[in-house]
C-alpha cells in the first residue's frame, strides 16, 4: 500500500510520548493551544473557531461541538461545568481508554479550553472504575498540570482558573448517556431523563453544563494548533476531521485505527484491517456499538460519515467496528446485541424496558426454531415503535441491530422461521448433526462422546444419530477424527 | 406569562410559554392519555418522569415521538396528537405494560379504581399482541400500613416523587436494571425496617394496585360478628367530607349523617366520633401551650396528632424530641378513654371492647400498634381502617349509602364542636387550639374565632395572632418536605414560633393516604377543605372547651386539665429512631 | 519546578523539553504500554529492553519510553525505535527475548529486524 490510509489527530501522541511525563507533552506543543487562547482569544473567538472547524461530537450523537459550547455559554448560571465523558460503555470499544492512557494531557488541555469558552471553572472527568491504568495516568497528569500552573488558579497568569476532578462510574452502559451521567455524578441513580432540558440549560446541579466525549476533546487542542481551516479540510462535507475506530471481530489486524471521515469501509476492513481472518468471505460490519446496525457487503464502498452511516441503517456511535465473516448467523448476532442492551437498559421507560425484552424473547424463539412468520412482522413493527417511543438514546437505538439485519439479511430470518434451519449453523437448536455413512469407519468415538447417548452402531460399522434425542451439543462433531459428521 | 403560538391538530392556538403540550391540548379539549404524569398544582407535587410513554405525540421536526406531559411548547410548534403513528405507539405502550402485568382485575384491590385499567379500556385494548416473561416479586406486607405488590407496578415513579420530593423521606427509589427494575426501599429492605413514616402518600398516587393499604377489613368484620365483643367505632373529621366520593357523590359532599347510619347498620355496637377526642386533644394541647408559655417551657410547641409526622421527627430530628406536644393523637386518646372511663361508666369489661378507628390515614394503622399506646395489656385502638376500607365494608354489607337517612352519633363520646371538625384540614388543629387558648388567656368568650390568615393550601404558612395583648407567632406546614424546612430553621435557631402545626399529608388529613383516590386531581382536596369549614360553621358550638361531654369527662373522671390522670391516659413519649 | 506564569515561560520550557527529548543524538525506544500492551506482556518487554540498554552501556544515547497504544492490537506488544535522521521502525509481537535482539541488531548494528517489522500504516497530523 503506497499512500497511508490512516491519519492521526486524536491519537497523535498515543504511542509516541510518555503519558506520565508532562514535559514530553509540552515538548510537542502541549498546552500551547490554551496558552495562545488565554493570551489572544476571547471565549467567543474560541467558539467561533470550533464552529469553523466543523468538529462534531465523537461520543455518538455527532452534535457540533462549537454549537454545544455556545449554548452553554449563553445560558445563565451561577456556576457552569465541563464534563468529560470517559464512560466508554460499548463492549469492545477502547478508543477513549487508549487516548486517556496515551495522551491524558490533551484531554486536560481541551477541558480548560472548553471551560474558558463556556465560562466554567470546574471540570469533571467521569471515568469507569474498570480503567485503572487510565485513572492512574490521569491522576498523574492532573497533578503535574497543577504543579506547572496549567490547571488551578490563574492559569498562565491569565486570571482564568479551572479545576478538574475525577468521578468514577460503576460501569453501567447507560451511565454514558449524558443525563444519566449527570445524575450519577450527583449521587442519584444513573438513569436518563427526558431532554429538553439539555445539559447546556440544566445540567450538573441544574447549572449549564457541557458533556464532551474523550475523543472529541482530544481533537480540540489539535484544532487550535493546526488551525480550524486545516481541520475542516479533512473529511466529508458534513463530517470533518478523523474518526478513531476499534476494529474487532473476524479481521486480521484488530486494533485501533484513525481515519479521515469519508474513508470507505472497504479501505478500513481490507486495506487497514488486512481482510478477513482465515481467508473467509466478508459478510457484514457492525458499527455504532451494541445499538448500531449491521452493514452488508453492498455498502463497503460508501464513504463513511455521520450521515451516510445513518442512511444505511447504522450509525457512527463511538467507534466500535466489528467485522463478521460468512459463518456468522445474523439472527444470532442481532440477539447477542439486543441481549446486551436489554440487560443494560435502565428500566425507566416502558418502550425500552418491556419492549426490548419482548423483542429479545421473539429472537430467542426464532433462534430456537419456534418462530413464526407472524413473529417477523411483529419484530419489525415493535422494533420501530421502540425506536420511536423510547426516552433516551439507548432505547431509541437498541432495535437497530435487529432492524438492520432484517433489512439486509431477511432471508436468514426466513430460513430460521420457515425452513427451521440456521444457514450459518450457529443456532444450535436448529443445527442437525448427521453421520455420513460413507466416511464413518465405526470407531465409536462419537458414541462415547455423546452426553445424550443417542448415537448407536456396531464397532466398525457406520453409526447413526437419533435425531429425536440429539441435544445438538456438537460433542460428536468435535470427537470424530474422520470428518464423517456433518453439521447443517 | 408570555404566550406562544402553536398548531395542534391543525388548530392555531396561543398558550402560555410554560405550558406542556399536554396542557395545551387540554385547553382545546384534546384528550391525550397519560399514566405516569401527575400534577397536583396546589400541592406542588409534580411527577414528570416521562417514563410510561403513553402520552406520546408527533411534534414536527423532532425525530422520535415526544411525551406530551414533559414536552414544553415553543413558538411555532406543530403538534399532531392523533396520527396513526402516535396512536399505535401509545396503544403498544399499554399493551407492553399489560404483557408484564398480572391482569387479575376481577379480584384486584384496585378494580375499577385503577388508572391502568381505565387506560386500557379507553384505548380499546382488546388483545395483547405481545407475550413473554412476567416479573414477579415477593410481596411486602411487613408493615401495618402499606402493602407492596410490585408485580402490578408500572414504574411510573409517582410514589418516588411523592416520597422523595414532596415528603423528603427518600424511602422509595428505582433499583436494578432492565426488565428487573423495581421501585422500593434501599437494599430491598421490608418497609417496616425503613424510616418510612407510613404517611401513605405513595399509595395515594399509585395508579395501580402496586401500593395499597394493609387491609383490616376482615378483622373488623370478625370482631363485629363476635357476640362476645363490644365493638365501638370512631370516625375522623376528614372522613365525613370524602367518604361520599366512594359512592359517586360530588367531592366535598358532607356525609356525616349517612356515615353514622351506615356504621350502625353494619353492626357496630356504638358509633362514636373522633371529633370528641379532638376536642379533648385541644383542651390538653392548649393547656400544655399555656403551661409552657407561663413556665418558660420550650417553645415552639409542635402538634403531635399526625403519626406520620411523629415517626418522621423521631427518625429525622431526634435532637428535638422535647418540642412536640406530648398529647396522643385524638383517636388514641379516644381509645384510652373508651377502655377506661367509658368501660367503667357503662360497666363493660374493657377486654371485651374492640375500638375501631375509621381514618383518612394509613400511618394510624402503624400507630395503633405502637407498644406505648396501650394500657393494662390492651392497645388503645384495636383496628384502623381507612376511608376506602370503610366504603368497601359498607358496599359489602349491601347498604344503599346514597339513600340512607341522616343519623347521629351515640353519646357521650359522639359530641363535638366545630373546632374538632377543622382538625381534618391543614391549619385546623392550630386554629382550634387558638380558639381555646384565646378564651382562656383573655378570660372571655371571644366572638372572632375564624382565623382566616391561617387557612389555605400554601405549603408553609405563618401568622401572628394577638391574644390579650400578647403576640403568638404561629407556623403551619403540611407535607413532610415543608415540615422539614420549618424544623431545620428551628434547629438552626432561625425562627421563633410559639406554636407550629404539622400534618404529614399535603392538604392535611383531607389529603390523607387512606382517603378515596384523588386520581391526580388536586381540586378534590380543595373541595374537601371547603366542606370542612362548612361543617365547622354549621356547628352550634365551635370551641373545644365548650364541649359539654368533654367537660363532664374531666369532672367525672380525669380531674384537672393537663393533670395527672390526663397525663397517664392522654399523653405519650417519643423515641429516637435510626436513619435508614 | 515553579508554576509557568505566562506564555513566554511556556514557550521557553517547551523548547527546553524538545531539546531534551529529540536532540540529534537521542534514540528513543518506545514500548506500547496501554492496557492492551501490558496485558500482552509489554511490561516484561520494557524491562528486558531497559536491562539490555544498561548492559550494553547505551544509557546515555537511548531513552526507553513507556508510552500509550500504538493501535496494533493484533501484534502486541509493540515497540517503536526511532533514530534521529532515520525513518522510525515499528515492531510487533515482541517478547523479552526478541526485545534483546532488537536492541542488539537495530541499535548496536543498525540492522532492521525485518521479520518483526510492522507496517506503520498511519500519518500523523503536524
Ligand atoms: C446509551 C448511551 C450510552 C452512551 N455512552 C457514551 C459513552 O460511553 N461515552 C460517550 O462519550 N458518550 C456516550 N453517549 C453519548 C452521550 O450521551 C453524549 O452525547 C456525549 O457524551 C456527548 O459528547 P460528544 O458531543 O463529544 O459526543 C451515550 C449515549 C447513550 C444514549
Ligand atoms: S430508553 Fe432504556 S435506557 Fe433509556 S431511559 Fe428508557 S429504559 Fe432507560
Ligand atoms: S392493578 Fe389495575 S390493571 Fe392491574 S390487575 Fe389491578 S385493576 Fe387490573
Ligand atoms: S408512606 Fe410516605 S414515607 Fe413511606 S414510602 Fe410512602 S410516601 Fe414515603
Ligand atoms: S409502585 Fe405504583 S406509584 Fe410507584 S412506580 Fe409502581 S405503579 Fe408507580
Ligand atoms: S396528615 Fe392526617 S392522614 Fe396524613 S398521616 Fe397525618 S394524620 Fe394521617
Ligand atoms: S404520561 Fe407522559 S410519559 Fe407517562
User: What is the CATH superfamily of chain C?
Assistant: Glutaredoxin
CA gyration radius of chain A, whole angstroms: 26 Å
Based on secondary structure, the structural category of chain A is alpha/beta
Which ranges of chain A are low-confidence, i.e. pLDDT below 50, for 5 or more consecutive residues? none
* CATH classification class of the largest domain in chain A: Alpha Beta
CATH topology name of the largest domain in chain A, in short, is Rossmann fold
The proportion of residues in beta strands of chain C is: 15-25%
Using the alpha-carbon principal axes, give the shape of chain C: globular
Task: Describe the protein in words.
Chain A contains 20 helices and 14 strands. Chain A has 488 residues and is of the alpha/beta class. Chain A has four domains: 22-232, Rossmann fold; 242-325, Ubiquitin-like (UB roll), CATH 3.10.20.600; 330-419, NADH-ubiquinone oxidoreductase 51kDa subunit, iron-sulphur binding domain (de novo design (two linked rop proteins)); 432-487, 2-Layer Sandwich (Alpha-Beta Plaits), CATH 3.30.70.20. In chain A, strand 3, helix 7 and strand 4 (163-169) form a beta-alpha-beta unit. In chain A, helix 17 packs across helix 18. Chain B has 18 helices and 21 strands. The relative contact order of chain B is 0.13. Chain C is of the alpha+beta class. In chain C, 38% of the residues lie in helices and 19% in strands. Chain C has helices at 7-22, 35-39, 42-55, 96-108; strands at 27-32, 62-67, 79-82, 89-91, 117-118, 122-124. The model of chain C has no long low-confidence stretch (mean pLDDT 91). Chains in contact: A-B, A-C. At the A-C interface, strand 1, helix 1, helix 2, helix 5 and helix 7 of A face helix 1, helix 2, strand 2 and strand 6 of C. Bound molecules: flavin mononucleotide, iron/sulfur cluster (5 copies) and FE2/S2 (inorganic) cluster (FES).
Amino acid at each position: 500500500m503506497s499512500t497511508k490510509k490512516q491519519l492521526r489527530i486524536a491519537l497523535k501522541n498515543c504511542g509516541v510520548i510518555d503519558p506520565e511525563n508532562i514535559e514530553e507533552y509540552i515538548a510537542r506543543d502541549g498546552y500551547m493551544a490554551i496558552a495562545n487562547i488565554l493570551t489572544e482569544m476571547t471565549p467567543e473567538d474560541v467558539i467561533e473557531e470550533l464552529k469553523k472547524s466543523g468538529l462534531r461530537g465523537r461520543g455518538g450523537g455527532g452534535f457540533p461541538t462549537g454549537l454545544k459550547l455556545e449554548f452553554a455559554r449563553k445560558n445563565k448560571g451561577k456556576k457552569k461545568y465541563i464534563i468529560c465523558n470517559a464512560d466508554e460503555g460499548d463492549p469492545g470499544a477502547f478508543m477513549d481508554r487508549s487516548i486517556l492512557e496515551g495522551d491524558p494531557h490533551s484531554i486536560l488541555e481541551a477541558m480548560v479550553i472548553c471551560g474558558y469558552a463556556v465560562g466554567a471553572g470546574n471540570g469533571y472527568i467521569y471515568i469507569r472504575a474498570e480503567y485503572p491504568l487510565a485513572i492512574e495516568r490521569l491522576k498523574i497528569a492532573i497533578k503535574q498540570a497543577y504543579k506547572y500552573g496549567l490547571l488551578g488558579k490563574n492559569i498562565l497568569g491569565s486570571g482564568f482558573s479551572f479545576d478538574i476532578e475525577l468521578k468514577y462510574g460503576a460501569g453501567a452502559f447507560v451511565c454514558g448517556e449524558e443525563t444519566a451521567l449527570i445524575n450519577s455524578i450527583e449521587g442519584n441513580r444513573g438513569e436518563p431523563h427526558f431532554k429538553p432540558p439539555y445539559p447546556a440549560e440544566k445540567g450538573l446541579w441544574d447549572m449549564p453544563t457541557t458533556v464532551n466525549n474523550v475523543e472529541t476533546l482530544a481533537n480540540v487542542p489539535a484544532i487550535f494548533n493546526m488551525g480550524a481551516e486545516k481541520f475542516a479540510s479533512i473529511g466529508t462535507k458534513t463530517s470533518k476531521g478523523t474518526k478513531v475506530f476499534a476494529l474487532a471481530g473476524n479481521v486480521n489486524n484488530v486494533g485501533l485505527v484513525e481515519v479521515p471521515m469519508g474513508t470507505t469501509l472497504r479501505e478500513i476492513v481490507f486495506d487497514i484491517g488486512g481482510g478477513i481472518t482465515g481467508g473467509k468471505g466478508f459478510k457484514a460490519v457492525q458499527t455504532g456499538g451494541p445499538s448500531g446496525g449491521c452493514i452488508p457487503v453492498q455498502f463497503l464502498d460508501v464513504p463513511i460519515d455521520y450521515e451516510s452511516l445513518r442512511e444505511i441503517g447504522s450509525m457512527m456511535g463511538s467507534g466500535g467496528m466489528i467485522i463478521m465473516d460468512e459463518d456468522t448467523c445474523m439472527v444470532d448476532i442481532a440477539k447477542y446485541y439486543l441481549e446486551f442492551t436489554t440487560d443494560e437498559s435502565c428500566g425507566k421507560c416502558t418502550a425500552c424496558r418491556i419492549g426490548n425484552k419482548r423483542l429479545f424473547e421473539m429472537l430467542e424463539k426464532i433462534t430456537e426454531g419456534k418462530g413464526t412468520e407472524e413473529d417477523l412482522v411483529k419484530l419489525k413493527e415493535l422494533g420501530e415503535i421502540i425506536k420511536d417511543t423510547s426516552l433516551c438514546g439507548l432505547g431509541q437505538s437498541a432495535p437497530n441491530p435487529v432492524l438492520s439485519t432484517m433489512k439486509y439479511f431477511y432471508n436468514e430470518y426466513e430460513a430460521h422461521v420457515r425452513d427451521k434451519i440456521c444457514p450459518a449453523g450457529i443456532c444450535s437448536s436448529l443445527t442437525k448433526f448427521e453421520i455420513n455413512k460413507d466416511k464413518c469407519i465405526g470407531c465409536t468415538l462419537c458414541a462415547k462422546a455423546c452426553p445424550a447417548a443417542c448415537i448407536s452402531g456396531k464397532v466398525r460399522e457406520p453409526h447413526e444419530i437419533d435425531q429425536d434425542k440429539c441435544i445438538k451439543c456438537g460433542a460428536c462433531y468435535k470427537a470424530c477424527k474422520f470428518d464423517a459428521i456433518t453439521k447443517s | 406569562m408570555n404566550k406562544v403560538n402553536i398548531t395542534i391538530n391543525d388548530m392555531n392556538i396561543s398558550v402560555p410559554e410554560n405550558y406542556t403540550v399536554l396542557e395545551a391540548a387540554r385547553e382545546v379539549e384534546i384528550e391525550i392519555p397519560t399514566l405516569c404524569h401527575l400534577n397536583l398544582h396546589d400541592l406542588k407535587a409534580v411527577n414528570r418522569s416521562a417514563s410510561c410513554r403513553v402520552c406520546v405525540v408527533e411534534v414536527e421536526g423532532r425525530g422520535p415521538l415526544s411525551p406530551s406531559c414533559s414536552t414544553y411548547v415553543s413558538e411555532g410548534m406543530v403538534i399532531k396528537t392523533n396520527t396513526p403513528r402516535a396512536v399505535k405507539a401509545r396503544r403498544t405502550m399499554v399493551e407492553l405494560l399489560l404483557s408484564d402485568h398480572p391482569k387479575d382485575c376481577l379480584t384486584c384491590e384496585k378494580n375499577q379504581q385503577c388508572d391502568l385499567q381505565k387506560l386500557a379500556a379507553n384505548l380499546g385494548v382488546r388483545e395483547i399482541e405481545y407475550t413473554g416473561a412476567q416479573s414477579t416479586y415477593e410481596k411486602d406486607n411487613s408493615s401495618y400500613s402499606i402493602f407492596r405488590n410490585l408485580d402490578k407496578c408500572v414504574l411510573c415513579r409517582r410514589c418516588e416523587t411523592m416520597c422523595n420530593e414532596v415528603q423528603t423521606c427518600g424511602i422509595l427509589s428505582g433499583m436494578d436494571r432492565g426488565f428487573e427494575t423495581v421501585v422500593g426501599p434501599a437494599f430491598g429492605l421490608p418497609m417496616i425496617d425503613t424510616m418510612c413514616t407510613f404517611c401513605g402518600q405513595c399509595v395515594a398516587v399509585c395508579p395501580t394496585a402496586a401500593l395499597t393499604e394493609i387491609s383490616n377489613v376482615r378483622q373488623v368484620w370478625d370482631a363485629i360478628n363476635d357476640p362476645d365483643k363490644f365493638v365501638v367505632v370512631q370516625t375522623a373529621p376528614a372522613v365525613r367530607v370524602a367518604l361520599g366520593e366512594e359512592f359517586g357523590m360530588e367531592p366535598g359532599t358532607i356525609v356525616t349523617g349517612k356515615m353514622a347510619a351506615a356504621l350502625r347498620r353494619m353492626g357496630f355496637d356504638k358509633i362514636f366520633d373522633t371529633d370528641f377526642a379532638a376536642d379533648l386533644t385541644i383542651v390538653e394541647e392548649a393547656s400544655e401551650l399555656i403551661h409552657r408559655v407561663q413556665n418558660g417551657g420550650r417553645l415552639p410547641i409542635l402538634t403531635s396528632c399526625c403519626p406520620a409526622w411523629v415517626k418522621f421527627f423521631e427518625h429525622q430530628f431526634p435532637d428535638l424530641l422535647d418540642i412536640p406536644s406530648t398529647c396522643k393523637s385524638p383517636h388514641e386518646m379516644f381509645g384510652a378513654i373508651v377502655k377506661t372511663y367509658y368501660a367503667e361508666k357503662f360497666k363493660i369489661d374493657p377486654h371485651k371492647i374492640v375500638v375501631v378507628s375509621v381514618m383518612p390515614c394509613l400511618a394510624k394503622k402503624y400507630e395503633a400498634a405502637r407498644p406505648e399506646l396501650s394500657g393494662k395489656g390492651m392497645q388503645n385502638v384495636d383496628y384502623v381502617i381507612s376511608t376506602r376500607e370503610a366504603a368497601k365494608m359498607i358496599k359489602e354489607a349491601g347498604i344503599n349509602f346514597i339513600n340512607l337517612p341522616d343519623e347521629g352519633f351515640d353519646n357521650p363520646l359522639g359530641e363535638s364542636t366545630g373546632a374538632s371538625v377543622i382538625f381534618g384540614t391543614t391549619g385546623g388543629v392550630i386554629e382550634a387550639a387558638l380558639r381555646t387558648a384565646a378564651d382562656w388567656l383573655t378570660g372571655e368568650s371571644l366572638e372572632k374565632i375564624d382565623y382566616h390568615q391561617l387557612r389555605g393550601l400554601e405549603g408553609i404558612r405563618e401568622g401572628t395572632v394577638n391574644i390579650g395583648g400578647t403576640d403568638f407567632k404561629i407556623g403551619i406546614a403540611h407535607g413532610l418536605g415543608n415540615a422539614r424546612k420549618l424544623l431545620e430553621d428551628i434547629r438552626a435557631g432561625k425562627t421563633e414560633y410559639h406554636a407550629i402545626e404539622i400534618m404529614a399529608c399535603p392538604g392535611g388529613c383531607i389529603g390523607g393516604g387512606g382517603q378515596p383516590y384523588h386520581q391526580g386531581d388536586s381540586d378534590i382536596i380543595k373541595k374537601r377543605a371547603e366542606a370542612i369549614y362548612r361543617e365547622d360553621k354549621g356547628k352550634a358550638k365551635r370551641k373545644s372547651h365548650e364541649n359539654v361531654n368533654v367537660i363532664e369527662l374531666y369532672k367525672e373522671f380525669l380531674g384537672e386539665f393537663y393533670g395527672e390522670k390526663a397525663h397517664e391516659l392522654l399523653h405519650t413519649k417519643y423515641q429516637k429512631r435510626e436513619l435508614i | 519546578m515553579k508554576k509557568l506564569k505566562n506564555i513566554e515561560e511556556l514557550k521557553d520550557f517547551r523548547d527546553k523539553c524538545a531539546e531534551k527529548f529529540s536532540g540529534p543524538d537521542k534514540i528513543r525506544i518506545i514500548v506500547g504500554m496501554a492496557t492492551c500492551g501490558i496485558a500482552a506482556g509489554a511490561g516484561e518487554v520494557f524491562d528486558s529492553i531497559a536491562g539490555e540498554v544498561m548492559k550494553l552501556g547505551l544509557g546515555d544515547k537511548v531513552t526507553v519510553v513507556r508510552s500509550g497504544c500504538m493501535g496494533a492490537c493484533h501484534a502486541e506488544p509493540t515497540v517503536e525505535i526511532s533514530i534521529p535522521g532515520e525513518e522510525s521502525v515499528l515492531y510487533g509481537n515482541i517478547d523479552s527475548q526478541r526485545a534483546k535482539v532488537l536492541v542488539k541488531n537495530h541499535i548496536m548494528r543498525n540492522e532492521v529486524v525485518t521479520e518483526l517489522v510492522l507496517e506503520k500504516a498511519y500519518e500523523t497530523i503536524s
